[in-house]
Amino acid sequence: MKGIKNIGILILSSACLQLSAQDAKMNTYVSNLMSRMTLEEKIGQLNLVTPGGGVATGAVVSQGVEDNIRKGLVGGLFGIYGPEKVRKAQDLAVKNSRLHIPLIFGLDVIHGHKTMFPIPLGLSCTWDTALIEKSARIAATEASADGLNWAFSPMVDIARDPRWGRISEGGGEDPYLGSLIAKAMVRGYQGNDLTKNNTIMACVKHFALYGAAEAGREYNTVDMSRIQMYQYYLPPYKAAVDAGVGSVMSSFNVVDGIPATANKWLLTDLLRKQWGFKGFVVSDYTSVNEMTAHGMGDLQTVSALALKAGLDMDMVGEGFLTTLKKSLSEGKITQANIDAACRRILEAKYKLGLFDDPYRYITEDRPAKEIMTDETRAAAREIASHSFVLLKNKNQVLPLKKSGTIALIGPLANNKRNMLGTWTIAGDFNKSVTIMEGIKNVASGITIKYAKGANITDDTTFAKHVNALGVEVETDAHTPQELLNEAVATANQSDVVVAVLGEAADMAGESSSRSDISLPESQQNLLKALVKTGKPVVLVLFNGRPLTLPWENANVPAILDVWFGGTEAGNAIADVLFGNYNPSGKLTTTFPQSVGQIPLYYNHKNTGRPYEENGPTKFKSDYLDISNDPVYPFGYGLSYTTFSYSDIHLNKSTIKPSETLSISTTVTNTGNYDGEETAQLYIQDVAASVTQPVKELKKFQKVFLHKGESKEVTFTLNVNDLKFYNSDLKMIYEPGQFNVFVGGNSRDVKQASFSLTAH
Ligand code: BGC
After folding, report:
1. How far is the C-alpha of 337 from the C-alpha of 307, rounded, in Å?
2. What is the number of domains present in the chain?
3. Model's pTM, two decimal places?
4. Quick check: helix, strand or coil at residue 182?
5. 15, CA 20 to 30 Å: which among 21, 189, 370, 403?
6. Which residue ranges have their beta carbon within 6 Å of ligand 1?
7. Tens digits of per-residue pLDDT, 104-149?
8. Strand partners, 55
9. Annotation marks residue 284 as catalytic
10. Within a domain: 627
C-alpha cells in the first residue's frame, strides 16, 4: 500500500514539476517578447476587433482593421471564419507587423459551429453531460477546421426570468446542474491539450449575474446580495474556472453598482485572487464604452477603470487603443497595469501554440473533411432527440402510428429559416431538416397534408422587431382567416393533427426580451380551431424560453417541447413523434402560468407565511387571482412509458460530518415502452443560520429501464453536499435536520429525513 502511495506522490510531483517547467518556459518566452514591444504594440494586444461579416451585436463595427493589424495594433479578431479569410488576416499580422505576433481568432460558437445542436437551454434538458461535452467537442473540431481557436462560450448565466431572451443561451435555473454543464462545455472545447489543432479556447460568460437583469429586460440593472450571488449565481462561472477555462467575458450589467467590466472586486479579488483564474478577461461588445452611459465617466476614464479592475481585452470599442497611452502619461494607470494585461493575452496565444505555428488552425482541406459530416449530423440528431421534453401526452396520443394521414399544420412545420434558433453565426439554416422532411424520412408510409394555418404573428410591429437581422416572420399573402380555414379543412381530412407552433428564432436570444411570453395570438387562434375539430392534436413547440401555456396544457392532448433543435431537428422530432426514440428530456427551467408570477423557480425560500396548497388563503404568501404553482416545474418531463419510485431508503438516520449517507430508491418502468428516466435528488436544510430553499438539487442519475424492469438507484451525499454560504460568505455546514426528496421532477417526490451531527 505504502509503495503504491509513494509512486502516486512521485507521479503527481513530477507532473507538477513538468507543469511549472512549462509555465517557466512560457514566462521566459513572453518576457522576451514583451521586452521588445513598444507601448503601442502592448496596447495593441489588448484590442479585439471585428471586421464585420458576422453579426454585429452592437452599433459599431471596427474600421481600418487591416492597417491596424499591420501596425501591431490588434490582438485578436472575431467575426470571420474559413481558412482562406483567416489566413489572409494572420498573414497581415505574422508577415507584415513588426514583431510578427499572431492574432487569436474568435467567434460566437454557441451551440455548434456549422453543424448546429439544440440551443443551450435545450441541450441542458438532456441532463446528459457526456452528450453536452460531445456537442462542444464537435463544435471545437468544426470551428478549428474553419481557422478559429477561440469560442465565446459557454454562457452559464443562471436565469430565473423567462422574459429575458438570453435564457435560451444558458443551462437554466439551477446552479448545480449549471456547474456540471459549464465543466462539460469547457472540456469539450478545450480538451486536455490546447495546442492541438482541433481544440479551442473557451470563454465563459457573461461574468457576472447577467441573467438577473431586472424585469427580464435586456442589459438592465442587476442588484443582488452577496449570499445570493455566492449560493446561486456564481457557481457555474466558478465551475468553468475550475475546469481550466482559458478566458472570461465580462457582462454588460452592473454588479454592486459598478459595471462588471470595471468591477475590481469581481475581476480581480473574486476571479483571480479567490478563484485562482489564470487566463484573460475580455469585455463584452463595447461594454467598456458603454460605461459612459452607465454614468462612470468619459471614454478615457472608463477605459482606465476597466484596465485597473482587471480587464485585459477590449472588444470592439477601442477605448483601450485610443486612451490608455494618455492615461499612462497622466499617471491614471501604470505600466504594470498594461504589462499584466498584455502578458495574459500573449500567454493565451502561447497556450494555443500560436507562437510555434501561427497557422496551426489554418488548413485549407480540413473544412471539407471535418465540417458537416455524416458523423456530425448523426450526433446532432441524437443529441437533439434527447433534448426534447414531453410536456403532456393524454390518452397516449404519442407516439404516432406510421400509417394513415397526418395534418401537418403551422408556420414552423415546413420552415428552414427558424430551425436553428439564436446564435448561429456560421450555421446555415438552408442545410437544416424541417419537420416535414423529417417525417417523410422517418415515416414514409404516411400521408402528409400540410397547411400553414397562421403567420407566426399578425402583429406587424412586433414582426418588424423580430425581423431586425433577417426575415424570420413572414406575412402570408392569404388573410389570417383564409389560412385558418385551410388548416381546419386539412385537419378534418386527417387522422391526427401535428401543429408546429411557437417562437421564431430571434424571438429569443440577445436583445429579445418579451413582456408577454404566451404563443402569439395568431397561433393561439389556430390552435383553438384545431382542437375544436375534435381530432387528436399534438402540439410541437418551438421556443427559446419557457412560455406561458395554461390553456394549451388544459386543452391540447399532447405537447412536445423541441426548443430550437438545430440542423437535424426535423429528423430528431420525427424520431420522437413516431417512437423511434422515447423522449427523456427534463426541464431545467420553470414554466410559469403567468408573467405575473415571475420570477418563479423551484429552489425558492419558504417565507414566514408559506403558500398553502389550494390557496389563496388570507395573510399567506400568494396571489388573489392565481395559485403559486407553475404549469410545469423544474425537472419535469414525461416519457412514452411511466416510472414509479419506491419509498426512499436511507442507510442511516443520523450522520457525522465525516460520514456519507446512502439514499436508495427502486425505480420501475411501469408502462409499455423501454425508456430512460432522470432520477433527481433534492435536499432541504430545515433550520440554518441563513434561510435555505425549500429544495435544492444535489444529485441526479439517468437510468435506462426496459418495460417492466426495476433498478435500485443509490445516491451518496457527504457533508460538502450539505454546506451553504453563511453571512460571512464562508461555506459551512450546520448540524440539524435535513429533508431529502427523490423523484422524476422537483414536485413529485418521495421524502425522508436525516440528521447531521456537529462532530
Ligand atoms: C454578446 C456576447 C457575444 C458578443 C460578441 C455581445 O453582444 O453579449 O455574448 O459573445 O456580443 O458577438
Report:
1. 7
2. 4
3. 0.96
4. helix
5. 189
6. 57, 108, 152, 205, 284-285, 510
7. 999 999 999 999 999 999 999 999 999 999 999 999 999 999 999 9
8. none
9. yes
10. no
